[in-house]
Amino acid sequence: MPAINSRGRGRRTINEINMVPFIDVMLVLLIIFMVTAPLITPSMIALPRVGKAPGQPPKPIQIEISKEELIQIKSEGQSVPARLSEVGPAVKRLQPTVPAGEQLTPVVISADKSIKYETVVKVMDALNKAGVARVGLSVQTGN
Q1: Domain range list for the chain
Q2: Residue 6, Cα to own-chain centre: how many angstroms?
Q3: Torsion sign over Cα 113, 119, 121, 126
Q4: Which residue among 1, 60, 114, 143 is the one 20 to 30 A from 50 at the CA level?
Q5: Residues sharing a CB contact under 8 Å with residue 105, sequence separation 6 or more, in sequence order
Q6: φ, ψ dihedrals at 79, nearest 5°
Q7: Are 86 and 127 in contact (CB under 8 A)?
Q8: DSSP letter at 16?
Q9: 8-state DSSP, 65
């Protein structure tokens, strides 16, 4: 009886992947790329031309608001005191006229941290009404 049991179902499953078809496909692709690569001509790219790059941005006009809510306008080393009603026109006079496409002189507001926020907003509103486009706020970084 042992002879019958040993012969009947002796098939084993193969747990290996057949790599031959995969290698055949890869070799065919390699040959295709090797043949077509010299036939491809490198294309020339037409890059756009530009004029001269803009220079450094102009130094900003600084508006300082002190603890006593006194306004000082500083530009190019000169400091001029101003009232709230005079801030817009004074800054507009200090901003030089620039050709189209160039940057306007920025305006930076530096205010003491103890004053009312309303004062800073009023100065910004006066500048906006005068047509000053670039207005920023100065802050101090710290830990």
Answers
A1: 61-137
A2: 77
A3: negative
A4: 60
A5: 58, 59, 60, 61, 94, 95, 96, 98, 134
A6: -120, 125
A7: no
A8: S
A9: E
C-alpha 83/C-alpha 70 separation (Å) is 8
The letter for the amino acid at 94 is: L
pLDDT digits (tens, 9 = 90+) for 120-141: 899 999 989 888 878 888 887 7
Query: Whole-structure pTM over 0.85, yes or no?
Result: no
43: confidence class by pLDDT, cuts 50, 70, 90: confident
β pairing state of 135-137 and 107-111: parallel
Amino acid at 53: A
Per-residue model confidence as pLDDT tens digits over 79-125: 888 888 888 888 888 877 666 656 678 888 998 888 888 998 999 99
Return the structure tokens found at 1. 């009886």
Architecture of the structural domain at 61-137: 2-Layer Sandwich (3.30)
In whole angstroms, give the CA distance from residue 136 to residue 143: 22
**In this structure, which amino acid lies at residue 90?**
A
